[in-house]
Amino acid sequence: xxxxxxxxxxxxxxxxxxxxxxxxxxxxxxxxxxxxxxxxxxxxxxxxxxxxxxxxxxxxxxxxxxxxxxxxxxxxxxxxxxxxxxxxxxxxxxxxxxxxxxxxxxxxxxxxxxxxxxxxxxxxxxxxxxxxxxxxxxxxxxxxxxxxxxxxxxxxxxxxxxxxxxxxxxxxxxxxxxxxxxxxxxxxxxxxxxxxxxxxxxxxxxxxxxxxxxxxxxxxxxxxxxxxxxxxxxxxxxxxxxxxxxxxxxxxxxxxxxxxxxxxxxxxxxxxxxxxxxxxxxxxxxxxxxxxxxxxxxxxxxxxxxxxxxxxxxxxxxxxxxxxxxxxxxxxxxxxxxxxxxxxxxxxxxxxxxxxxxxxxxxxxxxxxxxxxxxxxxxxxxxxxxxxxxxxxxxxxxxxxxxxxxxxxxxxxxxxxxxxxxxxxxxxxxxxxxxxxxxxxxxxxxxxxxxxxxxxxxxxxxxxxxxxxxxxxxxxxxxxxxxxxxxxxxxxxxxxxxxxxxxxxxxxxxxxxxxxxxxxxxxxxxxxxxxxxxxxxxxxxxxxxxxxxxxxxxxxxxxxxxxxxxxxxxxxxxxxxxxxxxxxxxxxxxxxxxxxxxxxxxxxxxxxxxxxxxxxxxxxxxxxxxxxxxxxxxxxxxxxxxxxxxxxxxxxxxxxxxxxxxxxxxxxxxxxxxxxxxxxxxxxxxxxxxxxxxxxxxxxxxxxxxxxxxxxxxxxxxxxxxxxxxxxxxxxxxxxxxxxxxxxxxxxxxxxxxxxxxxxxxxxxxxxxxxxxxxxxxxxxxxxxxxxxxxxxxxxxxxxxxxxxxxxxxxxxxxxxxxxxxxxxxxxxxxxxxxxxxxxxxxxxxxxxxxxxxxxxxxxxxxxxxxxxxxxxxxxxxxxxxxxxxxxxxxxxxxxxxxxxxxxxxxxxxxxxxxxxxxxxxxxxxxxxxxxxxxxxxxxxxxxxxxxxxxxxxxxxxxxxxxxxxxxxxxxxxxxxxxxxxxxxxxxxxxxxxxxxxxxxxxxxxxxxxxxxxxxxxxxxxxxxxxxxxxxxxxxxxxxxxxxxxxxxxxxxxxxxxxxxxxxxxxxxxxxxxxxxxxxxxxxxxxxxxxxxxxxxxxxxxxxxxxxxxxxxxxxxxxxxxxxxxxxxxxxxxxxxxxxxxxxxxxxxxxxxxxxxxxxxxxxxxxxxxxxxxxxxxxxxxxxxxxx
Length: 1188
What we know:
Helix content is 32%, strand content 22%. By secondary structure, it is an alpha+beta fold. Strands 18, 19, 20, 21, 23, 24, 26 and 29 form an eight-stranded antiparallel beta sheet that branches. It has a five-stranded mixed beta sheet with strand order 32-38-37-34-35. Strand 23 (672-676) and strand 24 form a beta hairpin. Helix 8 runs antiparallel to helix 9 and helix 29 packs parallel to helix 31 (838-851). The relative contact order is 0.05.
C-alpha cells in the first residue's frame, strides 16, 4: 500500500524540482529545490509558498513544510555527518556550505571550491575503507573534472571546514556524469553514472517517452585487500535486534536502523530503545563498539518519535566527544520546553570547554524565551570566541533581542547574573558605557576599550583612582602591568595616557616605567613606556643607553620617537637618531644593507625528494630543484614537478600594517612550519592528515623576515596559511603583504623615525641623500625624502638626487618597477623637476617615461562571458603588468597568443581539456604560440602578470582558453611602435601603420562597430542551438531594451509586448530572428502604429515629437523620451497648428554597436524565445554558458 505524504514536487524538471532527499536525525525529510521552481503546498495549518532556491523540509508526522537553508541557484547535494552536522551544496556554482544555523539563514561556505557543476555529495563511512578515510566528504562533479572528489573534514573551534585531498574516482571519458553516491550494504561505494553527452536543463523528464533509458550505469568502488561489510537486514526484525545496528561504524547502517524504527509503534520503540539505552555506558568507546555514539542514535530515535526524554539527554551530554555533546544540545533546542530542566542543561552547554558545543547552545537558545534564554548568550559571549561562534552569537542576539531583554531587566530591577553584567560591560558601546552609572566596573570597562576619547579616559582614570584610593599614575601602571601579555585591545589607548601624566608623578614611578620599557611582553606597552621615560627625562639619554643593549630594544626606542607628542622634545632627538641611519651602537652587530629592491610576492624553493621534516636547518642542507617568485603561499606552485614526496620553502618579508598581536595558522597535510624572524611561531611538522595549528606573536609595524616550510610524504596533501591581527579576522595573507628582497633593517626604522622629526629639513635632505648616493637603504630614504617640501631642499642636492633616482630605476628589473619603491622614486624625481630648468625637466620626464612600467587592468563582465576591455595597446618591446581580475561567477584565464593563433589555441584548449594535466596548467594549452598565460581565476581572484611586449608590432589576440569560452571571450592586443601616436588618434595611426589582422574573429569582434544586416543575416537565418540564456537576459538590459520593452517581468511598457511577439496569426512574420534583427538595426522600417511617434507643431513655432500616452478632450500627454524619468509633456489641443505621424521610430539606432557577434546572437535568441529559458535554442546550454 502506498500513502501519498507530500505533493507539489514535480518530476517534470529533470534536476531542479526536488533532489538530494534525505531524512535528518531530527526526523524531518529534507530536499533541495532550484531557482526555477515555486513551492505552493497545503499543510494542515497553512499554505506554504516559497520562491527561494535552497533546502526545504517536510515533517512526516505533522505534515508541516519549512524553508530551511538558502543556497543556489540550483542546489544539488545535502548530507549529514555521523554527528548530525548538515552540509548543502550548489550544483551550478559548485560551492558547499555548512548549514550552521538553518531556519532560513545562511550561507556558510566550508571548503574552497575548485570545480563545478556538482550533482551530488555524501560522506565516506564504511569499515571496508581505511579508518583514516572515514568521515571524508565526497563530491560528484560532471564537467571539466569528471569524477568523485574527496575532502578531509576538520573541526576548528566552532567552525567546520574541509580540504580537498586525492580523488576517489576520476574518468577521462567525456560522457562520465557521476550523479549520486551511496555506501551499499556491503560497505562498498556505489556511484551512479548518467553517462550522457548532453548536460543541461532541457533533457526529457521522467515521464516523457523520449527520455533516454538506454544509457546510464552504476560503478562499485571497493578497497583492495579489505573485507566487505556483511549485509544487514532489518525489515520486520525485533526492535532489540535492530538496535544492535546502532553500533555500526557505517553511517548508512545506523541511518537505516533509525528509519526502520521510525515505522514502528511509538510506545514499543520508547520502551525497548529506552531499555537498550540503559545498558550503554557513555564512557565505553572503541573503534568497533562506540556506546556513546549508540546513545546519541537512541536520542535521535526518540526525537524522530517526538518523545522528549530528559534522562537520556543528560546521559548523552556526559560524553567525552565534543561532537556528541554538541548533537545532544541541538536536540535539546528542538525539544524546547518539553524538557523541564532545559535551562540548567543549556547554560551548562554555554559554559562547555568546547566552542563547538557552546555554538550549538547559542543556536538552541533561540528556541526559548526571555532572560533565561539570553543567559546562554551572556555565558557564551563572555568566553573565548571565534568567527563562527561570533556569527551564531549575532544570530541569537537578533532573534532574542538580547540587548532589549537586558534593558528591561535593569528597568524592572531584576538582578543580573555575573555573566549578564560582564556581557553588558563587554558589549556596550563606548557611548553607552559613558551613560551608565559610573561604578568601578564601568570605569574598568571604559579603560579597557580602544578608541575612547582622551577626555573620557582621563576622567575614568581619575575616578577609578579615587575609588581605589591611589594615585592615577600608579593606577595606570597597575593596569598596564596587569594586562601586559594578554589579548586586551585597549592597551594602546590607556598607554597613551602615560606620557601625559605630570613629570613629578612620572618621577615617582620611574623604576616601574623603565622596567616596562625594557621587559614588557607587549610591544605597544614597551613603546609607550619609552615615550613616558623620554618625556620624564626630557632628553632621551638614559632611554637610548638602555635600548643600545639589544636590537629589539633599539627598535622599540626608534618606534617610540614618532609617538612623542611634544614636537620640541622630538626635535631634540635628531642628533641621537641620525647616526643610527648609518651605524649601530658598537655593542650591536652590523645590519645587512636592507630595503633593497622589493617585489610583491614570495620566493619559493622546490625540493625533491622531501626529508622527514621541514625545519629550516633540514632544508638549508638540501639543494632546491627549482625556484621562483609566486604571489601567495600555496601548495600548487609552478615550480612543483611532483605530487608526492616533495617539500617547499617560502622565503621573503611580511609587512605588518599595525603594531600588535598577530596569530598565524598553518593547516597542512603533511608537515609545515612558520618562522617570523628567528622565532618558530607555528610547528605543525610531522606525518599527518589535514591538521591546523596556530601560534601568536607580538609584532611592531614594518617588515619582518618570513619563512614558511611544507612537505608532503604521499597520499593526501594540502597547505593553507592564514593570519589574524589587529582590526581583521582570520584570512589568507594577501600578496600585498608579502615581498621578496630587502627586508626592513634597524637603519630603515631609524630613517622612518628621522622622517617623523619636524624641522631640520636641509640637514635631513643632506643626510638622506648621502645614503641614496651610497646605495644604502634607498627605498626608506626616498620615502622619507618625499615628506620634505621641495622648496626646502638645498639646491646643490636636487640634481644629484634626480640623477640617482633615474639610475636607481634604470637598474631595476621591469617586474619591480610597479612596486612601492619604484613608485616612490618616480614621484620624488617628478616632484624635484619643479626646481629644474625647463629643458632639464622635459629631459627628465622623457627618461622617466622610458623607465615607467604601465599597469593595465583587465577584468571580466559578470554573466556575459567577455573581458571588460575589447582592445588594448602596448608599446613594442616595453614591459607592462597586466592585473587580471575575475568578477564573473565562473572561472576564467587570460592568455596572449601570436598573431593568427586565436582559433588554433582555442581548439587546442578544447582538445586537451580532458588531459590529466589540464587543470594543473590552468587550461592554458601547451604551445609555443602562447606568449603569456595566467592562472585559472575563480570569482573574486586577482593575478598580476609581468609581460614584455613583443618587439615586432602587430595585432595579437588575447583569449580565455577555459573549455568552451574562446569563441566569445577574446580581445585585440595592438603592439605598436609609438604608443603616444596611437593614443592620440588610434584610427589614423592604424591606417598609417597597416598592421594586418591575421585572426578572423578579431576582424569582426569589435563591440564599438556599426553592424550591418548583411554581416549578421547568415548567422541569424539558421540560429543555432546552444545559445546562452543568461547572457541574452543580461544583454536585454545592457542594450537598454528594458527602457521600452518588458520581458520576463523586467522593463517598461513603451513598445510592443515582446512576450506576445508574432501574435495574432496575421503578425506571425514578426516572430522570426531575421525580422527581430532588422527591427533592431533599422527600427524605422516597420513601425507599429500603436507606438508611432507624433510630431506636433505648436502655434508658438515649437515642435514636439513623442508618443501619445493619454488623450483628453482638451489635451495630449506625450512622452518625449521613454528613458527619461520625468512626467509626460502636456500639450493643449488649442495650441496645436499641425500634427503628423513621425516616420522615425522612437527606438534609437545603434543599440547593437557595443555588442559582439556572439552576444547579438544571444540577444536575438532571448527575444525570439520570448524570454523562455526552456526554448530549444538554449537546449544544450548549462548554467553560465557551459556547452557539452
